[in-house]
Specification:
The complex is a heterodimer of chains A (226) and B (212). Chain A has 226 residues and is α+β, with helices and mostly antiparallel strands. Chain A contains 2 helices and 10 strands; from the N terminus they run αβββββαβββββ. The mean pLDDT of chain A is 86. Chain B is of the alpha+beta class and 212 residues long. The chains are: A alpha+beta (226), B alpha+beta (212).
Chain lengths: 226, 212
């Protein structure tokens, strides 16, 4: 019993010494760390950063501009049919603008279209007008001749003016100097900003002979909402 | 009996720990070139000056304005803010109305060598805002003071193809007072269908301590 008590007393003494030593080790270690850190001029530093902000700026003005990169359609010399009205299309691919109903040819080179390009940076609505009405342009004794226009998508630029917005059926210039809708929302996108315009003439047998007949076609573009 | 041996061993280890800790502290303190400030003997009459590290860059000219730029109806047109012809014109058909050359000027106003990156809050295409989605915004740099940028200066026009993306501008941008300035210049390419309006990009330059 005595022996056990003595052993227990020794154990307690050792434990106390150990506790003191542990506490001393912790204090010294902490003190060393604090002294070391506080002696550094800037404390603990990593890769410091700084940033600055500026602006780059430019302005572009609105530009509403269309260009006729091909501004002429020439049917050449056209023949008549003594018994019926002959019809010629400038966009014919048969090379002669042969009348669909036969009976004649024009000497021009076909297809022959005007090319209209949106060279601005705005979507535009485009109208077309003729300085002469169809009757005066064809100039027949009966006054029954016609002169039509039509819009055609250019190959590779079919989104320039979607078909729903493009006048794709031949429309008669029944009135002179009157704006007819050609295209709504003609695109300014550089790779999709061109359309073709083709013409049709109906020549009755009594179309008067003339050296040549010409009319001035005017296109007008106006900014649209898009 | 085995417990007594274990405690002794532990005590030895603790003593060893204390010795190592004290030794480590002394080694750390001795390795500092100037020891611990405040511990210098006043009897020697030493005056000590401590300079803090300062990582700081400043845009002393923080804007480049091309002004109002014309377009070319048939092709993409290029303008450079550092053009020396006074009109930023690369194309005889069009000009911008700004005053050129027009640079941003970046100065290392700290005392640390820094690595620089540059970013734009918008991509080149978004900045130009053309219907076709074409168009670009480029950056480039040159030393205003000789040897301001010791390495990796981006001297060819580089497109901001990504927004808010850090592009390397310079490694080891010097803090030396006579060699601490850079020019930053910009190039825009404007397709014919560039939409009208004033376009602004926010350019952010970040400097980070480099090892040198």
């Amino acid at each position: 019993m005595v022996k056990t008590k003595k052993k227990s007393s020794v154990d307690n003494s050792d434990t106390k010494r150990l506790a003191v030593l542990i506490a001393l080790a912790i204090v010294i270690s902490l003190a060393g760390t604090v002294i070391t850190l506080s002696s550094l001029p800037n404390g603990i530093t990593g890769f410091a950063t700084d940033s600055e902000t500026g602006t780059a700026q430019f302005t572009v003005s609105a530009l509403t501009q269309i260009s006729l990169t091909d501004s002429t359609v020439n049917f050449g010399t056209c023949t008549l049919n003594a018994s019926s009205t002959v019809v010629y299309h400038s966009n014919k691919t048969n090379g002669q603008s042969v009348s669909p109903s036969g009976g004649g040819t024009c000497s021009g080179t076909f297809p022959d279209n005007m090319t209209l390009e949106n060279t601005g940076n705005k979507y535009v609505n485009v109208t077309v007008k003729s300085s002469l009405n169809a009757m005066n342009f064809t100039n027949s004794s009966s006054g029954t001749g016609n002169f039509y226009f039509v819009g055609i998508a250019k190959t590779g630029e079919t989104s320039a003016c979607p078909s729903a917005n493009l006048t794709t059926t031949f429309t008669n210039f029944t009135l002179a100097d009157t704006n007819y809708t050609l295209c709504r929302n003609l695109s300014p996108i550089n790779t999709n900003d061109e359309i073709f315009i083709a013409y049709r003439i109906d020549l009755p047998p009594d179309t008067r002979e003339q050296a040549s007949k010409s009319t001035t076609i005017t296109f007008t573009a106006e900014d649209c909402a898009q | 009996m085995p417990e007594e041996l274990s405690n002794r061993a532990l005590a030895v280890l603790l003593v060893l720990t204390i010795v190592v800790s004290i030794g480590g502290t002394l080694i750390s303190l001795n390795s500092m070139p100037k020891g611990i400030a405040g511990y210098v003997s006043t009897a020697q009459g030493t005056t000590e000056l401590t300079i803090s590290a300062l990582t700081e860059i400043t845009l002393t000219d923080d804007a480049v304005n091309f002004g109002t730029c014309g377009l070319n109806s048939s092709q993409t047109i290029t303008y450079q803010s550092n053009a020396s012809d006074g009109e930023s014109q690369e194309d005889s058909d069009s000009t911008c109305t700004g005053t050129f050359p027009d640079y941003m000027v970046l100065e290392n106003t700290g005392n640390k060598y820094v690595n620089l990156t540059i970013s734009s809050n918008v991509t080149g295409a978004t900045f130009v805002d053309a219907s076709s989605g074409e168009g670009s915004l480029y950056f480039s740099a040159s030393n205003k003071d000789p040897s301001s940028c010791l390495d990796g200066l981006v001297t060819t026009f580089t497109n901001f193809t990504l927004a808010a993306n850090n592009y390397t501008l310079c490694n080891n941008f010097s803090p030396t007072n006579t060699e601490d300035e850079l020019y930053l210049m910009y190039q825009v390419t404007l397709p014919p269908d560039t939409r009208d309006g004033t376009k602004t990009a926010q350019i952010t330059i970040v400097g980070e301590d480099s090892l040198q």
